[in-house]
Design a protein that fits this description.
256 residues; Glutathione S-transferase Yfyf (Class Pi), Chain A, domain 2; 2 domains; 11 helices; globular; binds glutathione
Length: 256
């Protein structure tokens, strides 16, 4: 079976799917056209159905959206299962996946871009991590790419206004609150039942830009304000849980 993952190496939604594919040992090829060209590629692959990455090509279909992709690989590749069979646990795992996808993912991304944009040279460092290698030797190309990233993230992710960053900090705090209260009401290590599910995978992958555990996607040198923010969250149980979940379940990532 030919499986192709179209992805952005640095992105947390893409990390969610890479993690699932690697955990299940699904052999696949990876392609990574640089952002923002990926939007056109996603639209072309999915015939207009999705404009975001990741996109997975499998069985002759192109599937957009990390939740739909994980559902599709769960159907085709049995183990280890990510979505519980028991109906109550299944519903809880999928509801938590949805919560972290919608109420956390956009905000952890927004805040990182906010701090990169505010930091001198921050978006240039970001540009250098996502541009094709050969172009990073040209100062002009890096500047043009950084300006493109500033415009794209302002329009698509509301990066710029301090009010938007404040909202992101509040949403991230709320996501940690939910994570910690779900862990407290369960056995402690996992969000649903007594094993790793798509709920843990989603919470950990989408908090990775905030926590920066060792096996998370490589980030550009973080701005001091981001380091300070990270340090302010370090005492939270949820922060330690993300680090432990990566250490225990991520395995050595296949790069890029
Ligand atoms: N709900 C989507 C979100 C994916 C997403 O936002 N991907 C970003 C990269 S991190 C993207 O391609 N954004 C392009 C855009 O918003 O136009 C998923 O779970 O896959």
């Amino acid at each position: 079976m030919s499986v192709v993952l179209w992805h952005i190496p640095i992105s947390h939604y893409n990390e969610k799917v890479r993690w699932a594919l690697e955990l299940k040992g699904v052999g696949h090829e990876r392609r990574a056209p640089p952002p923002p060209s990926h939007v056109a590629v996603a639209l072309w692959l999915t015939r207009g159905a999705a404009h975001t990455f990741p996109v997975l090509e499998i069985d002759g279909r192109a599937i957009g959206d990390s939740t739909a992709i994980i559902a599709a690989i769960e159907e085709r590749f049995a183990g280890p299962p990510l979505i519980p069979d028991e109906p109550g646990e299944r519903a809880r795992a999928l509801a938590l996946e949805e919560f972290f996808d919608e109420r956390l993912g956009p905000y952890s991304r927004q805040l990182v871009f906010h701090e990169l944009r505010a930091d001198d040279g921050g978006l240039r460092r970001f540009a250098a991590t996502v541009m094709p290698d050969r172009l990073t030797r040209s100062d002009l190309a890096v500047s043009a790419f950084a300006r493109g990233a500033a415009a794209f993230t302002r329009v698509r992710y509301r990066v710029g206004p301090e009010a938007a960053a404040a909202e992101s900090r509040a949403r991230i705090a709320a996501a940690f609150d939910r994570l910690e209260s779900e862990l407290e009401s369960g056995a402690g290590d996992y969000l649903v039942g007594d094993r790793f599910t798509v709920a843990d995978l989603t919470a950990a992958a989408l908090l990775a830009p905030v926590v920066a555990p060792p096996r998370a996607p490589a980030e550009p040198d973080p701005p001091p304000a981001l380091v300070e923010y990270r340090d302010s969250l370090r005492g939270r149980c949820g922060f330690a849980w993300v680090e432990e979940t990566f250490a225990r379940h991520r395995g050595e990532p296949v790069r890029p």
